[in-house]
Amino acid sequence: MEYSRSELMPGVFLSHLRSDKFKTACMSLNLLTQLSRETASMNALIPNVLARGTTRYPDMEQLSARFDELYGAAVEPVNRRIGEVHCIGFFASFPEPAFLPGGEALLGEMCSLMADMLLSPNTRGGLLLPQYVDSEKEKLMELIRSRVNDKRSYAVQRCLEEMCCCEDYAVSRFGTLEDCEAIHYKKLTRYYREILRKSPVELFYCGRASLQEVEGAFRDALAGMPRGEIDYDIGTDLRMNALEDQPRYFEEQMDVTQGKLVLGFRLGSCMEDPDRAAIHVFNAVYGSGVNSKLFMNVREKLSLCYYASSAVILRKGLMIVSSGISFDKFESAKGEILAQLEAVRSGDITGEELTCAKRAVASDLRAAMDSQGELEGYWLSQALDGLDYGPTELAGLVEDVTKEDVMKIAESVELDLVYFLCGEDDADPEDEGEDDEDAEA
Amino acid sequence: MKMQKHEYTGIGETLYSAVLDNGLEVRVVPKKDFSTCYAAFATRYGGAHRRFSVDGRKLDTPAGVAHYLEHKMFDLPNGDNALAILSANGADPNAFTSAEMTCYYFQCTESFEENLKMLLHFVSTPYFTDETVQKEQGIIAQEIRMGEDNPGMVVYYRLLEMLYAHHPVRDRVAGSVESIAEITAQTLYDCHRVFYAPSNMVLCVEGDVDPESVVRIAEDVLPKEKAPVPKADFGEREGILPAETRRTLEMEVSAPQFLIGVKLARPESGAAFQRENIVAALAMRMLCGSSSPFFTRLYAGGLLNMDFDYEIDSPADTFMVIVGGESRDPEQVLEAFQKEAQRVAAEGFDEGYFTRSRRASLGARLRALEDFDSMCVALASGVLEGYCALDSFALLESVTAEDCRRFVAENLTPERMALSVIRPKVREAEN
Which of A161, A223, B233, B354 is the most exposed place for a label (fewest CB within 10 A)? Predict the structure, then answer.
């Protein structure tokens, strides 16, 4: 696989990854803005409204009929937050010519359709159609309301929100119900025109077409894109320490049978010059995977929870431990989760634990080379950080991580907030006391 | 053991197949240039296989045994845990139990053969004690309870209970807190002996591997003798009409969740069944897929959102279509769906629409080939159902617009449809 990066137009960058091994090609187009309360809902809404129809294919039925003709090429609105950068746009995938009955090359038409969705939506009098805006608004509000349906991810989100209450990171990539409700199609059109002019754009392509072909196709397709002064002042603020001296505590009640305990940590001073490989290995030793300390001790040995695992959000310098527990196990589960962190700090790590962790991290990175979706995410976030090494190179760095490196990361980690989603007071307390779920193993 | 080689030139895949002397079916899809290898080892044994006969004896087991067994299979006689060993070796192992199969699998980028040996070894080595079986009960009880908080799972099982009057597919794969209390180490040994014989299993591998060596390893590690294949008893064949047509329940959800289900007549032969599956998938794509007039109209009207989807499912000798998602008014969606099916049954599908939908289906099937996980599981299901998943590309070519109209006309009539709904809890005295 060959990776290259170029600037096609002012503030429009292409990451090109040439590979012959896939049967479909994929690409993405992302407008970058600073994550903020004022714009989050509008950002979330824009790709969905744009996907409703273009001047050439004015409604969903006609637009999707065109995609069906192109062998079910999929162009989907995407809305991600990477650190405190809000990335919105489209992700597309379509078959490579070698596997189509007529050997048709779809690249040019796909770039042109994606650019049309971005630049030439169905408008009236230069304004986005109010019926499209209102209908997508309704759907976005439904989506925001629905986050309560999945208690596990809801609890993690709530923990992050409270932990980062003074930072942009508290803002959801969907914004809030109130902000969404307040969106008016005229205001949305103005904002849409503004980000078209100002936002840096990240394009990604992975497939069999050469750099030249892809550059050419995107240049032609985006020729009409209005570009003004580009706003490069976009990035993620890192907070090294917890907000208060003592970890904060938040509790919420709901009609649930299982409690969700989430601990939010700052990765701390190690983020001044982050050793990414060591941070990944630390996370694997401590809490991700079945050989981690959290799994082996909190879950298996002491049966304190149904699941317990850690995840790092590297770009924002955070770590989250998420667990499902019986309501009455709150203190003991929390105590043991922290005791295991202490164990990593003090170097209570066997050679076996370290080797397993390194193998797991390196293997995940190498496996990413086989998935276009993972590659897209990996390279987009590398582009945002101005980094240019691939997953295989990072896997190589993982091999060199030592026990001391891992201890150093653990030493730097600091608990900021504890969040507990528990049952309602009048509900029967869950006192069965036993353990685990795990849909998998 | 000589393997059969079959080239699927249009889609650039090669499939190697073999049946070992012990009856195990093996399928290998070699993939150059990929660092990931994937192996799935599956048995035709799932939540619905509760009653069966073996050696002339009839057995009736509690709900949840297959899933319980899956949890306990990872324990090895020396006290080790196979999940931990494979993970420590850099592999990413896991397992799932559905109504019709239990599948153990791993993905890795190194030491494939060593990992494959481990997979075959632990799945063919039962080791249970009353103590370890007892310990698992709390764990699985929690998993069952967690399912009770999951609206998607609740709305699904309630639909199955409406469609089928007595077929064991109605029972939760994990069983109930009461049913699993009846499971002992002996139950697990018995069911392992019956269902985990190689003659009842399939091994599928994808990656940059040598097919012959996969066969050699399987021959080395697994038992040599060919055991009789157990016969599952799913009860008397059910009629084509649903047992009930409406159920509604309140839960802690933000908007109503719903599923519409229709039971289908299942063709006897594997080949006919595979073709009917492809016809059904294409017919459903045209009737209510994301580019259909039905979906785009209801989406624009605010009755449906992007959660809406359809599925053709056939666990444990059943066959059904399930359609659903989230809507403020599921009854209205059902009514619109019935009307659309009636219209299509009368008018048929437009040729242009049919041609481009079939193209889209081809593209979607090509995309699915990129995913080792779904490819291996599809191959395994195909073997267990008596067909080859990779034949679907050629079969798709043979499907006509009239096949699809016929499918809709025969099956999607109002009296055949059941509707399962979960509504948001109405709270007295908000704030």
Answer: A223
Distance in Å from the first CA to the final CA of chain A: 34
**How many domains is chain A built from?**
2
Residue A299 has pLDDT above 90, yes or no: no
In Å, how far from its chain's centre is CA A293? 25
Q: Which residues of A touch B253 (CB under 8 A)?
A: 146, 148-149
- By mean pLDDT, which of A331-340, B51-60, B74-83 is the weakest? B51-60
* Contact call for A352 and B74, based on CB within 8 A: no
What's the pLDDT score for residue B252?
82
Q: What is the pLDDT of residues A147-177, one digit of tens each?
A: 888 889 999 999 999 999 999 999 999 999 9
Same CATH fold, B246-424 and B4-232?
A: yes
State how far the Cα of A96 lies from the Cα of A104, in Å rounded to an integer: 8
Position A239 in a domain: no
Give which of A59, A146, A149, A252 to mutate to test B binding, by max B Cβ within 10 Å. Answer: A149
Nearest to A99 among B11, B83, B305 (CB): B11
Residue-range domain boundaries for chain B: 4-232, 246-424
pLDDT(B297) > 70: yes
pLDDT for B287: 98
Clarify whether residues A298 and A405 are in a common domain: yes
Chain B residues in contact with A296 by the CB 8 A cut-off are: 84
Examine the domain organization and report whether A209 and A326 are in the same domain. no
Query: Do residues A209 and A62 both lie within one domain?
Result: yes
Residue A243 lies in a domain: no
- Residue appearing with tokens 């087991």: B61
Structural domain boundaries, residue A30: 2-221
The residues with which A148 forms a beta bridge, in sequence order, are none
- What pLDDT, on a 0 to 100 scale, did the predictor assign at position B428? 60
Task: Indicate whether A15 and A136 sit together in one domain.
Answer: yes
The predicted-structure confidence for B166-206, as pLDDT tens digits, reads as follows 999 999 999 999 999 999 999 999 999 999 999 999 999 99
Work out the minimum CA distance from B350 to partner chain A, whole angstroms.
Answer: 13
Confidence band for B253, pLDDT divided at 50, 70 and 90: confident
B142·A306 Cβ contact <8 A = yes
pLDDT of A11 above 90? yes
* Per-residue confidence band for B1, with pLDDT thresholds at 50, 70 and 90: confident
- State the architecture of B4-232 in CATH terms: 2-Layer Sandwich (3.30)
Q: What is the pLDDT of residue A394?
A: 96
A210 and A281 together in one domain: no
Which residue among B35, B84, B143 sits closest to A367, beta carbon to beta carbon? B35
Q: CB A59 to CB B300 under 8 A?
A: yes
pLDDT of residue A438: 37
Query: Per 3-state DSSP, what percentage of chain B is helix, strand, and coil (rounded to 5)?
Result: 45, 20, 35
Say if residue A427's pLDDT is above 70: no
Question: Is B143 close to A438, i.e. CB distance below 8 A?
Answer: yes
CATH of B246-424, one of 3.40.50.150, 3.40.1190.20, 3.30.830.10, 2.40.110.10: 3.30.830.10
Q: A84-88, A426-430, B410-414: lowest mean pLDDT where?
A: A426-430
Whether A139 sits inside 8 A of B74 (CB atoms) is: no
d(CA B65, CA B189): 11
User: Are the Cβ atoms of A94 and B363 closer than 8 angstroms?
Assistant: yes
Query: In angstroms, what CA-CA distances link A150 with A421, B139, B154?
Result: 12, 20, 13
The verdict on residue A176 lying in a domain is yes
Geometric angle at alpha carbon A293, from A288 and A299, rounded to 5°: 90
Stretch B231-237: mean pLDDT: 92
* pTM of the entire predicted model: 0.91
A217 in a domain, yes or no? yes
- Assign residue A141 the CATH number of its domain: 3.30.830.10
**Cα gap A280→B345, rounded to integer Å:** 56
User: Apex CA B419: angle with CA B413 and CA B424, to 5°?
Assistant: 155
Considering only CA atoms, which of A185, A195, A197 is closest in space to residue A39?
A195
Comparing CB atoms, the residue among B87, B146, B151 nearest residue A289 is: B87
- Phi and psi angles of residue A160, each rounded to the nearest 5 degrees, phi first: -65, -40
